[in-house]
């Protein structure tokens, strides 16, 4: 039986409320991010969101329990039985890596006082080195205006933590770029700027 929009919204709300019992928003900051991802999973049923949530739990050492465990188990069963075309698009991961790239660029600009162009060169190098994002720095820089307008709150938070010593800046640069920092970036990662 197909649910009408109102019934579907009620069901989504109830599922999300049940999820919040296991991962209350006021318990840890990461729970807010996790809830946003879980909510996208419920709305879209795109398994990339659930995979991203499992990856987040693994990264932060958060146990998978309750309703989330039921959803992960049900998805695993569907995958094993090859019940349906579960793999829609990998757009979720691409968006996440693009988000991380722009966030890293802002951190380099505000925290490490890198010039805009240099920050995007370093981030492009990180993307290629890690295999997470294959975009040249010129493309990232071109997207940055639109991206920054959509993420003004994040940019404001990053701006708050601006004062660091030179030693701290060097350490942060290496940490942000996950060990891929190099003084001179390969020209192939830069692209053509206008």
Number of domains: 2
Q: Taking Cα atoms only, what radius of gyration do you get, to the nearest Å?
A: 20 Å
* Secondary-structure-derived class: mainly alpha
Mean pLDDT: 79
Secondary structure blueprint with pairings:
Blueprint: H1 5-22, H2 29-44, H3 47-60, H4 66-81, H5 91-111, H6 116-130, H7 137-150, H8 152-160, H9 166-176
Helix pairs in contact: 1-2, 2-3, 5-6, 5-7, 5-8, 5-9, 6-7
Can you give a write-up of this model?
The protein is an all-alpha fold. The model has no long low-confidence stretch (mean pLDDT 79). The protein contains 9 helices and no strands.
Structural key phrases:
mainly alpha; 194 residues; 69% helix
Brief summary of the model shown:
69% of the residues lie in helices and 0% in strands. The chain contains 9 helices and no strands.
């Amino acid at each position: 039986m197909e649910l009408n929009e109102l019934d579907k919204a009620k069901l989504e709300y109830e599922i999300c409320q049940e999820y919040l019992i296991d991962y209350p928003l006021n318990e840890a900051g990461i729970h807010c991010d996790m809830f946003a991802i879980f909510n996208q999973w419920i709305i879209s049923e795109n398994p990339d969101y659930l995979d991203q949530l499992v990856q987040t739990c693994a990264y932060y050492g958060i146990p998978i329990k309750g309703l989330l465990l039921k959803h992960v188990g049900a998805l695993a069963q569907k995958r094993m039985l090859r019940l349906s075309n579960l793999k829609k698009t990998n757009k979720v991961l691409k968006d996440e890596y693009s988000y991380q790239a722009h966030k890293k660029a802002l951190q380099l600009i505000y925290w490490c006082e890198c010039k805009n162009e240099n920050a995007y060169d370093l981030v492009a190098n990180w993307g290629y080195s890690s295999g997470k994002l294959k975009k040249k720095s010129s493309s990232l820089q071109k997207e940055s205006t639109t991206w920054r307008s959509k993420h003004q709150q994040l940019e404001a938070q990053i701006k708050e933590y601006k004062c660091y010593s030179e030693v701290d800046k060097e350490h942060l640069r290496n940490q942000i770029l996950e060990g891929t920092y190099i003084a001179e970036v390969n020209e192939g990662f830069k692209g053509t700027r206008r």
